[in-house]
């Protein structure tokens, strides 16, 4: 069968293997036929050799962690043949740490977790894969064209879950949310904000392309000015750029009892002048919280599946700006400026 693989740590070693072995039974009882994988910045970093770890004893890693497939066989009866399914990316560490011990592998404390297509587990960019029932998330049939958005949606479902848990420290009725960055994570964070009935603002540098219209189609407001020039103080900020200036401006801009959730990973190595004392004063005097959020556990995957099923399906379709057939697979991994989400299609 076909599999998209890389040699870990070797830049530009991306290959389509035509006779990759069938998934091993140990990978899980549920056998799945791949429909598509979504591609994100992590895939690009793995291809560039900055990231990625093959399973023990192997030298190539199957990439792909944003999965969508159809069940071919499930002897456990968890799912039915033909059901849409996505695989949870992260598996708990073997020790396990206190978080992994209660299936909160997104909060793993020792870093020994594994991740499909990223760290020690084969990815989903292959014709067939297997998954254990615990890591198999069934999807509403209506999501067949867009179900590969479940993984990035799980990340924002976790962010919102933790925002609300932090908000529950006190009487808290948020009204306004600012999302910085209108990539897939930012747009999906905005979608989940509108589903919560919040007044949603999205800020991005793009003045053209699909982003402004996608934001307005949610009933949200689109901004291209710097964060510090906005004329309101949001109750919640979901930061999705990782750009140092945007991150710091967001922490300063959030209103009293505000919550800032950081989801963007900065590359580091860039320094900017910043008044740390003023930030401290504002966080203390306004009871503000700034926290980081990454990955998702099974609860968040289920919340994400529910959120996608309730969303306007035509809007979700517009997030996918290119669908690349397997015959052109390298094109899927070449980023263009206007892309929001690129998908590699296993059915064509
Ligand atoms: Zn752990």
Protein architecture, described:
- The chain is of the alpha/beta class and 348 residues long.
- It has helices at 41-47, 98-101, 150-167, 184-195, 211-217, 244-253, 276-285, 298-310, 313-319, 329-332, and strands at residues 3-7, 15-17, 30-39, 60-62, 66-73, 84-87, 90-91, 114-116, 120-121, 128-131, 136-139, 176-180, 199-203, 221-223, 236-239, 259-262, 289-292, 320-325, 341-345.
- Strands 3, 5, 6, 10, 11, 18 and 19 form a 7-stranded mixed β-sheet that branches. It has a 6-stranded parallel β-sheet with strand order 14-13-12-15-16-17, with helices on both faces. A 3-stranded antiparallel β-sheet has the order 2-1-4, with no helix packed on it.
- The model has no long low-confidence stretch (mean pLDDT 96).
- It binds zinc ion.
Radius of gyration: 20 Å
- Percentage of β-strand residues: 15-25%
SSE pattern, N- to C-terminal: EEEHEEEEHEEEEHEHEHEEHEHEHHEHE
In whole angstroms, the N-to-C terminal distance is: 15 Å
Number of strands: 19
Which class do the helix and strand fractions yield? alpha/beta
Largest sheet report = 7 strands, mixed
Helix content: 25-40%
List of distinct ligands in this structure: zinc ion
Question: What's the structural blueprint in terms of helices and strands?
Answer:
Layout: E1 3-7, E2 15-17, E3 30-39, H1 41-47, E4 60-62, E5 66-73, E6 84-87, E7 90-91, H2 98-101, E8 114-116, E9 120-121, E10 128-131, E11 136-139, H3 150-167, E12 176-180, H4 184-195, E13 199-203, H5 211-217, E14 221-223, E15 236-239, H6 244-253, E16 259-262, H7 276-285, E17 289-292, H8 298-310, H9 313-319, E18 320-325, H10 329-332, E19 341-345
Parallel strand pairs: 8-9, 12-13, 12-15, 13-14, 15-16, 16-17, 18-19
Antiparallel strand pairs: 1-2, 1-4, 3-5, 3-10, 3-19, 5-6, 6-11, 7-8
Helix pairs in contact: 3-4, 3-8
The structure holds zinc ion (ZN).
């Amino acid at each position: 069968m076909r599999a998209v693989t890389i040699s870990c740590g070797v830049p530009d070693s991306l290959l389509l293997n035509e006779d990759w072995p069938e998934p091993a039974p140990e990978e899980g009882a549920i056998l799945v036929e791949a429909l598509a994988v979504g591609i994100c910045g992590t895939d690009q970093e793995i291809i560039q050799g900055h990231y990625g770890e093959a399973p023990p004893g192997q030298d190539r890693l199957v990439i792909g962690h944003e999965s969508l497939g159809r069940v071919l066989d499930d002897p456990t009866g968890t799912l039915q043949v033909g059901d849409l399914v996505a695989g949870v990316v992260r598996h708990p560490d073997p020790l396990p740490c206190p978080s992994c011990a209660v299936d909160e592998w997104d909060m793993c404390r020792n870093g020994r977790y594994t991740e499909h297509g990223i760290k020690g587990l084969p990815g989903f960019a292959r014709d067939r894969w297997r998954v254990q029932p615990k890591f198999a998330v069934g999807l509403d049939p209506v999501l067949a064209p867009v179900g590969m958005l479940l993984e990035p949606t799980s990340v924002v479902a976790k962010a919102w879950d933790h925002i609300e848990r932090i908000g529950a420290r006190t009487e808290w009725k948020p009204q306004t949310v600012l999302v910085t960055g209108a990539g897939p994570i930012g747009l999906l964070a905005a979608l989940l904000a509108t589903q919560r009935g919040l007044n949603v603002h999205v800020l991005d540098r793009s003045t053209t392309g699909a982003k402004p219209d996608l934001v307005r189609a949610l009933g949200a407001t689109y901004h291209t000015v710097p964060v510090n020039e906005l004329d309101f103080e949001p109750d919640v900020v979901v930061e999705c750029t990782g750009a140092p200036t945007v991150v710091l401006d967001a922490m300063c801009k959030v209103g009293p009892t505000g919550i800032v959730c950081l989801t963007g990973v900065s590359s580091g190595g860039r320094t900017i002048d910043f008044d740390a004392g003023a930030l401290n004063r504002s966080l203390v005097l306004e009871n503000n919280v700034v926290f980081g959020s990454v990955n998702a556990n099974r609860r968040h995957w289920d919340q994400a599946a529910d959120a996608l099923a309730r969303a306007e399906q035509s809007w979700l379709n517009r997030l996918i700006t290119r669908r690349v057939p397997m015959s052109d697979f390298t094109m899927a991994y070449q980023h263009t400026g206007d892309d929001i989400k690129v998908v590699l299609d296993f059915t064509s």
